[in-house]
Amino acid sequence: MATTTAIKEIFEALPHIKKVGAKHLWFDFDDEADVLYVSLERPQMATDTDILENGIFLRLRDKKIVGVTITNISKRFKK
User: Fold this and answer.
1) What is the mean pLDDT of residues 10-37?
2) What Å distances lie between residue 60 and 11, 12, 21, 77, 79, CA to CA?
3) Is the preceding peptide bond at 15 cis, omega within 30 degrees of 0?
4) Which band of pLDDT confidence, cut at 50, 70 and 90, is reported for residue 79?
5) How far apart are CA 62 and CA 18, in angstroms?
6) SS3 73
7) DSSP E strands, the chain
């Protein structure tokens, strides 16, 4: 059941991911810190950060989004 739910949620996210325009995405999860790092480029080499809302950070290089950092990830998606 949990696998089916996860697959459904991934498919629901695909249109949003496609809008980003990245050819590849890298996901890194730090369990101890409860942080999800999504990189749109490797190496990310961000030079600036914009804070979207509490605990969500856009990583930028020359005004281009190269990554997203989301803190307290398990609490945000807890059902």
Assistant:
1) 86
2) 26, 25, 15, 25, 31
3) no
4) low
5) 21
6) helix
7) 26-30, 35-39, 48-53, 56-61, 64-71
What gap in Å lies between CA 49 and CA 55, rounded to an integer?
12
Residues 6+ away with beta carbon under 8 Å from 35:
29, 69, 70, 71, 72, 73
Please state the pTM of the whole predicted model.
0.76
Q: Where are the domains of the chain?
A: 23-79
How long, in residues, is the chain?
Answer: 79
2 pLDDT tier (thresholds 50, 70, 90): low
The number of angstroms, rounded, from the C-alpha of 4 to the middle of its chain's C-alpha atoms is 21
